[in-house]
Amino acid sequence: MKELFNKYYNFIVIFLVVLILVAVFDKALALGLIVLAFLMLITFFVLSKLGLRDKTLTRLLIIALIIHLGAVLFIYYFDFQPFGGGAGGYKTCHLIATKIAENFKQGNFSFQRVPYYERGSHPYRYYSLIIGVLYTITMPEMIIGQIFQVWLAVLFVLLTYLIVKEIGGSNKQAFLIGLIVSFYPSYLFYGSLLLKDALVASLALSGLLFCLKLIKKFSWKNFIIFYLILASLFNFRFYIGYALLFTFIFCYLFVFNLNFRKKIIYAIIIIPLLGFLPEILLNQGFFGINVFSSSFNEESISFYQEKAYNPPVQTYPENTDSGITDSSISATSTPSISLFGYESTWKREKVSFRESPFKFLVNYLKYFSYILFGPFPWQMKSPVHFFALLETIPWYILFLFIIKGIYQSIRNRNKLVLPLIVFSLLVLGAITIFINNFGIITRIRIPAFAVLLTLIPLGFKKIRKD
């Protein structure tokens, strides 16, 4: 310990001096930096114990830390909100978390009078609890929650690095993909807000990482870890959880390195465990049969396409800090700021599969191209939407390398790419069926795009020899 202290003495002194100076101007920011430093120390300690830490990975994580911390500070202090006009789920999450922290600090560990908790399920129910606990330990300031997001971003980059390594990539390849993911525009923006997307993406990638490990060599230890990750993912975004669940089932049937006898014996235990998970957590039936029967019909699909993600353009007040009551939240309907995000939609042509199956399939292939490559310039209805070109133009170039990686993997019969491809197709396919709002799409497709990016190195034989 003494040697470690001496080695990093100068860094520790500089950090403490900077922390004191920051605390003079912004106590909340100083607390957030302390939390971030603590989480990073734990991360590097765990990596060292697992034998995963090396200079290449350390450099990558530090770069990711600097990039995402810079993004958080810029967005927070300059109030950079070009799409939502300063309103959105991140403020709701902050309100809920603040009330939870207030209750906990008073010794009240119930959720009485916590907005939305008394009304049943809410999209930010569990994520706001995590932030509420963080606020209880520190103080209820949004910047602290956003700095926590920086750590989640570092984990996200770490997981992409490990996935590239798991499928046969080199340290150099993993570093380059991690660097690309660090600059992923949608993640850089949404991951810097108090939104659960950063956590969902990290859970999805960690689940896929353990799925890859199980394909290589099945162990009950890794399956239990995968199972816990899957359970967590269901609680935060259940449809991404289903994508991971069915990816695992597909791989278990067709990819796992198990002889037929073991596969049958293990299935007797695994199938019930996985099948009852949606019922236990969400009351959605065995393998989610209830939610699928209620969602995959013409009426439900029309509702999601036309209403659920396409509400009338609303306006919200700039100041939402006046209180943490139900009335203050409902008051956010007061006109003030337009929500550009809800204008970023396209109209779907109503075609029945029974009446015109060919046209129906052609339309959905077209919609799938919107999800995979959009938004296109002609679909942008406001000048601020052209920010999306910072993501789509590089994506078109990177996608060519993704195709090359997939092609080389097929030629080399690299079965480890199958779970990554299947997961991405399931996520993008679900979005294609239900959502036509680009503001929502660019958030939900983050884990699918990140997973596809990990396939790029497989197309470069020369680099793989390094």
TrEMBL record:
> Which GO terms of the cellular component aspect does the record hold?
plasma membrane
Annotated ranges, domain Glycosyltransferase RgtA/B/C/D-like = 128-280
Where would you find this protein in the cell? Cell membrane
One Gene Ontology term of the biological-process aspect is: lipopolysaccharide biosynthetic process
The UniProt keyword set, sorted, is: Cell membrane, Glycosyltransferase, Membrane, Transferase, Transmembrane, Transmembrane helix
Pfam families membership: PMT_2
Positions of transmembrane segments: 7-25, 31-48, 60-78, 143-162, 174-192, 236-258, 264-282, 384-404, 416-435, 441-460
User: Topology in the membrane?
Assistant: Multi-pass membrane protein
> Could you cite one Gene Ontology molecular function of this protein?
pentosyltransferase activity
PANTHER family xrefs: MANNOSYLTRANSFERASE YKCB-RELATED, MEMBRANE PROTEIN
The name this protein carries in UniProt is: Glycosyltransferase RgtA/B/C/D-like domain-containing protein
